[in-house]
Model the fold of this input.
Amino acid sequence: MKRLLIVLAFVALAQATTVSSITCAGQTATVNSTAHGLIASQGFSLSGTSPTFNSTASTVTANAFTFVLPAGTACSGFTSGYSAVAPAKQIIDTFSVAFPGTATVALNYVYWFTTVYPNPICTLAGVPIPPYTVCPVSLYVNATAAEQAAILAGTTVEVAGQLVVPAATPPATVQTTVISQYNAMQVGFAGYLLAGGYFWNGSAWANH
Done:
């Protein structure tokens, strides 16, 4: 196996911005952070003295954004203890395999798509939600507790992928290709196309 070190740029930590305050309205939290740089349906990571928390931005303005907390999570617990916010990881290079016979390289990676239409996999207590029978573990072995929790909550959707390219392919071309794939598919998760766990009641869509 051979790792393409240049692709590790995908998991480089993005620049964090300062959180000035977090306010609550029911299960919806508003994070105030000047020039945070997030867009709607983008994943983020809150950090500070409280445990790191990952979720997905709902409504977004230049200096603030909202997110919806999982059922059973008190919003009041987020009004203090968080001092910084940064974009969440999106593409992670897990490992690469060289094939000398064909002079190609297979790049294996995971995509972390994010959605405001979550389909939870497990409860906060770690109990699988049918039809799931187990709470899965991320394919990324270095996933943090917050990243793993976001996957189980359904706000982050993990998808494995592979790209086979000629060994002489410039690293920048590889990066451009997988980023384009991610951006194209993320549109479906940001919209309603790939939402799960919803039903139509005759007048509106609701989550079961």
In short: The radius of gyration is 18 Å. DSSP finds two helices and 13 strands in the chain.
